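Take one protein record:
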Amino acid sequence: MSLLGLFNRALIESDLSLCRAAEQTWRRYVEMEPDPRWRAEALDHADRPDCVRSWQSPDDSLQDLLERQIPALLEMAFEEPEWTDAWRTAEALSEMTGDSLVLRILDDIGRLDASDKVDFREYLLIRDGVTAGSADSVAQPFVELAEKVARLVPATTPLVDLDLGRLAIYMGRFETALERLNELGSRSNSDRDPWIAGRADWLRGLALVRGGNREAALSALQRSAATFGTAGYTRAQHSVATLQAETLIELGR
């Protein structure tokens, strides 16, 4: 990794409260930097880490932190200087985790005109409010807006499919949900897009559980847990494992 890459990585790790990792990266930078002025600055960072540990769990992985950052990064994508910060963070996270989903979405957002950005931002706001209790009332406008966003920002297509699959589950339309999630699963690559592939199987398992097909649900949940585990999404893996355990209990195993 270049000196600039190491410097930016250390800043991102500090921003994400990865204090130990940030200190190690700063010290790697010091070993490679020939300029004494930059070495002194890096040593100052390493000796007095400028990050906050309060909200970070010891079990957090970079992938867990990326998942938490996704909504915030997308919200930052509409105005300067936040756009630059979002891009820098997404680029570093993509390099560190191998998951480029947010980076691809930001790339597409950068090509939107002002009115289309308004629609995308509205989609982000509505999707956060979609719950089992609100699904019926928001369904029609949300579906129309989500499908428009998928056309405007092609990289969001799998994200939209997940959202619409989740909406169908909330509305009790399990076959509709499975049809969309199965199609998404056939297009997803667990190596390239582990967050998408893992969630597609997770929601597929949930739809099957609620639809009464618990045996089939276990297979989907097992794939989801394996995908998350391999990719390092430990929090998501644990959540899926909880649903697996509940399903096994319901089956009397």
